[in-house]
Amino acid sequence: MAAVLGERETASPFMSVREVAAYLQLNEKKIYALLKEGKIPGTKVTGKWLFPRELIDRWLLDSAHGGILTDRLLISGSDDPLLYRAVLALARQTRAHALVSYSANGTRLGLELLQANRIDLCAIHWGTEEEAHLRHAALLRQYSRHHEWVLVRAFRREQGILLSPRLGMSDSSPESLLESCADGRLRWVMRQAGAGAQRFLLDRLERTGIPLRQEENTPVAHSERDAAAFIAMGRGDLAPGIRAAATEFGLDFVPLGWEAFDLALPRGIYFRRLFQQLLTTLHDGQTRHLAGLLGGYDLTPCGNLVWSDD
């Protein structure tokens, strides 16, 4: 036993085609076939295939009959109050029979975690609704595992600027508000690099030709509700964000437009019971009622398959 443990401790974290074939007790031709089908985790470095040992072990577990990991749905990516509550409802339904969790950390980092096979599902938004079919596909194609993924529409939501009520500027037009920001009178709360809300705001500023003025000590929020909390606590006057976050924290809101909020996931995850239950939860009457209370949602396209790199 000590000898076996010693071998595992000194083993390289990456395996070649020959090594992974021996590890799985398959011939090399079968390994290449699995690679072509996108069914085994591997990466090509300077013309040579390498297989992360840890991901191979997880792939084996996930491929086992009954699938240990099929009782798990780990969600990351962009923050959303409605998705968060739908996940909570699903977790209450499944109780201890499955692990369902949602940790929001932005579109870019979420996709990096999906690429590394650390999560099962990534929520993304990247620009206006009109450009989503192009931008979301282009964004996913920046990751080598994109050919394994599909994109499912969760809903449409209203993106804009969260405002402190004390400003009394809720009736301002987007243009006049952005111009007021340019002269430095108002304090921004910014989002982290790689956040879809930040991307939406920068696109709008670029179109209007208004510069984004930030101070050195400008707070940086890492989620929708984090940004809203900064304003509610008086640490800033305005921030990019969605209407639902403004509703949650009693803030004013100036709309900039609508965006598509999509779910990126591997094809195999799409057919899992837990993911289909999540879509059912998003469709149910309770979720739709909550969407109406929060405001700024359209669940009509929920569940539509909007992209697949076939």
Task: Kindly summarize this structure in a few lines.
With 310 residues, this protein is of the alpha+beta class.
Highlighted features:
single chain; three-stranded antiparallel β-sheet; eight-stranded mixed β-sheet; alpha+beta; D-Maltodextrin-Binding Protein, domain 2; 14 helices; 13 strands; 3 domains; elongated; 310 residues; 23% strand
What does this structure look like?
By secondary structure, the chain is α+β, with helices and mostly antiparallel strands. A hairpin with a 2-residue loop joins strand 2 (43-45) and strand 3 (48-52). Helix 2 crosses helix 3 (28-36) and helix 5 (81-94) packs across helix 13. The protein has 14 helices and 13 strands. The strands form 3 sheets. Strands 4, 5, 6, 7, 10, 11, 12 and 13 form an 8-stranded mixed sheet that branches. A 3-stranded antiparallel sheet has the order 1-3-2. The protein has 3 domains: 12-33 and 52-62, no CATH class; 68-158 and 259-308, Periplasmic binding protein-like II (D-Maltodextrin-Binding Protein, domain 2, 3-Layer(aba) Sandwich), CATH 3.40.190.10; 159-257, Osmoprotection protein (prox), domain 2 (D-Maltodextrin-Binding Protein, domain 2), CATH 3.40.190.120.
